[in-house]
User: Fold these one by one.
Assistant:
Number 1:
Amino acid sequence: MRITFIGGTETVTGSKFLVETETTKVLVDCGLFQGYKWLRERNWQPLPVDIENLDAVILTHAHLDHSGYIPVLYKRGFRGPVFTHHATKALCQILLADSGHIQEEDAKYYSKHNLSKHAHPEPLYDRKTAEASMALFQSVDFDEQGEVGDIRFHLQPAGHILGAASIILEADSKRIGFSGDVGRFDDVLMKPPRPLPKLDLLLMESTYGNRQHDTQDSFQQLAAVVNRVAKSGGVLLVPAFAVGRAQALQHLLATLMDKGDIPKMPIYLDSPMAIKVSDVFCQYSDQHRLTHEQCHRMCDVVTYTRTVDESKAIAGQAFPHIIIAGSGMATGGRILHHFKRLLDNSKTTVLFTGYQAGGTRGAKMLEGVDAVKIHGAWIPLRATVEVISGLSGHADYLELTQWLTQSELADTTPIQLIHGDPEALEGLRVHLQENTKYKVAVAGYRDILRL
């Protein structure tokens, strides 16, 4: 068996791992590169595999850095199956179409305002292609045995978001684990990740490999931020991932308001994608911690703005108020239009609640830049920028270590670290090397591993 690392190495985006036996080729995850321009340019490069000979894709979960390249495969002729959990399929139906739509709109905007170096900027793929690619999806249950040629696989719950899975793959008398994104043991919404079985190799994410999450109570942290905004008479802008973080914020805000810990004020969920995801969230109550009543309450406490006109109308809202909008790293979506309008106001607070990949606007704002570039224009940053790290859907380095020790792995199981920025990868490698007996290495881009 051979594994080629063609994404998700030395960065947190673009996860793609090609697994080959003598007769079968499978791609585990199929994500978009995001963040730095030199990374995003990889999305336009051909994969080191003949797509006609690719037998299947097996998907850990729906986030675009794991799934967003599937429409590109489809556009280039791939017609094999995409195996994933039922909830992941439901979420991909929303996320991929939205990704295609945003790319179309961005291309039109850049063309209209002459902001591109290309005379006729084109999207990587459009909404129609994304929607067509959903015909490839074949959903499976957790623990259901699947086969592609001489490769056998099953999914097991990883926490993180709805449908998120670790993939256990067997071929050539070897068993390999792909962690996917590993959730937390005390997540506000999701149930904890299931420990792993015995493996001959583990590919493990390292997003928070060099950091420990804030141990402060997320309810208290959010209440403090909201109360400061309410007192100042400003606006709270929350760039939020449509899957997971938006729903967590709805639940926290609903709970805080019902308890009287924050004043009642208008809350807008200005993300058609997050609105649809919230509906899916209520359909899969077996995968999260909320009761039926809590799930519906979190939806009732916010105002959904589905159309562009409804989004624009928020500008006329009296202060204070809260706007939750995509995207989570401020790379696109409706949050940018609110940024253009409100970032230069000192009464504005921007709250980040999830990981910010290097090169994204979110990362730059957390670094303390004086201005951010949006649609070709520099917007002064006079707003207060805050972060609540405790709402992350990723396990930190201590939680990853706990997950490993709860698993059935042998002490000397080899681990290849993936899906992390260089500092996180090295931090987790050193931690595991000094505190465990696992054989730990950091995977490199285009590395080939033979078992």
Note: The chain has two domains: 2-211+393-450, 218-391.
Number 2:
Amino acid sequence: MSVAAKYPHLTRDRQKGWVIEGHKRISVRHLAAEHRYYGWSAEALLENHPQLLPAAIYSALAYYYDHRDELDREMDAADREIQKYRSKTVQPARAELQARLRSRKK
């Protein structure tokens, strides 16, 4: 018989999904993305989020590894959306940006 895992220090937010308890602005997905894309360890996550308890970071990483396929699919889908948006957006040339900045200073 399997018992559902519990994740202390995490709470469910209707809009963001799982977030750090007491820190609704920091989602498990956000920490998982930093871990995945930057290669940040739990210690590095703690250095970059000193307002969080170590236990909360480890709980978020435990949730990520327990649900890795699902979260990775969500992050991959978000990456595709970003790429789609970027492909439709024309980035101005550096010279054009510099000219805009110069015109603002006048």
Note: The beta strands are 10-13, 17-20, 23-27.
Number 3:
Amino acid sequence: MKFNPKPLLLCCLIALGLTLFAGCAKESTDVKVKIGEVTRSVFYAPEYVALSQDFFKDEGLDVELQTIPGGDKTMTALLSGAIDVALVGSETSVYVYQQGTDDPVINFAQLTQRDGTFLFARSADTSFNWEKLKGSTYLGQRKGGMPQMAGAFAMKQKGIDTGKDLTLIQNIDFANIAGAFASGTGDYVQLFEPQASIFESEGRGAVVASFGVESGYLPYTVFMAKQSYIGKNKETVQKFTNAIQRAQLWVKEHSPEEIADAVLPYFENTDRDIVVSAIERYKEQDTYAGNPVIDDKEWNNLLDVMDNAGELKDRVPLQAIVDNSFSEKAEQTVQSGN
């Protein structure tokens, strides 16, 4: 009997069509959200947990993450509509508000509640005190950015005037600060993790103080969106915030080792032990926010930090550019990170 391939071919085409249809149908049910993060950092561990553990996906969101180095560039991408949500320092929303706009940037979910930088010295110093900074060369962060402002605020509390008591270098791009210190620039440097742990493992010095601890609680890194986007996508913003709250609880409930394993896909070229060390240091000092709500005390501390740096025209009321309704609902409804 002669074989007729047409029925088999027809079956294959039908099966393929059904598969494609199912894929398209599934894709159409997930709401696309484009996030722009200001840098790739272990500091943002709960964000990567929300992605790796499918918390966004469970909420019906298809999240696309991109890294846009620099707060100014991240904010430009948000204002232009290139991204829907920005993960960046809350001071950027204050800058936009101070410039005047009909469509302000609204903070709706806090991710980190302390500054994420550390004071790193060229040698381990068990007897360190802040007076030792006087007369030193200090490699700091960009003027007007939260790391620099929080660092200056913390040092002022310790009696250090960065304009008079030390030689301050802050004209080096964020991406090149670690390299500059490694090549011999500065006696002290302000570093994020995991760079601080990497340098310690390489014998280049040691962390001697935490700017996060010294500057206090503040809405350091926050998810924000334009007011117009939030107004048109309230359900999406709520689902997004629910996923973040779930991730924050997951981070609280799990060990540094478990968190490291969850976020390692986003740090392919970083040693696992370094990631564990960085996360452990952040957890110990309560850096990761336990919920996405921004309270008045944190907000006022942020304004104090900005005012100390000379970057605040007027004190911006929390209600002007913070919408806690999504975070408060998430805190009430999301009970566990598991």
Note: DSSP finds 16 helices and ten strands in the chain.
